[in-house]
Amino acid sequence: xxxxxxxxxxxxxxxxxxxxxxxxxxxxxxxxxxxxxxxxxxxxxxxxxxxxxxxxxxxxxxxxxxxxxxxxxxxxxxxxxxxxxxxxxxxxxxxxxxxxx
Length: 101
What we know:
Helix content is 82%, strand content 0%. It has 101 residues and is mainly alpha-helical. The protein has one domain. The protein is rod-shaped and about 100 Å long.
């Protein structure tokens, strides 16, 4: 390629490169701002979620300390009740014992 042709085009090429560089920088700044906004929003959501979990833990601690160790026996009593309910659930499949109308 002839170097004599590129010399008059050099200023136009430089201006185009500068415009492209500036637009790329602005685009990168917008992407950083968008990412920062999303990160801040997620952080706020996490803070709210952590606060909810802390409240739940406080309630559980209050339940355990107010009632003492009786909670374990209450849980076991509930498990026993569920086992009895599940054992009697459903319709028997023994077809020899049909109801008479």
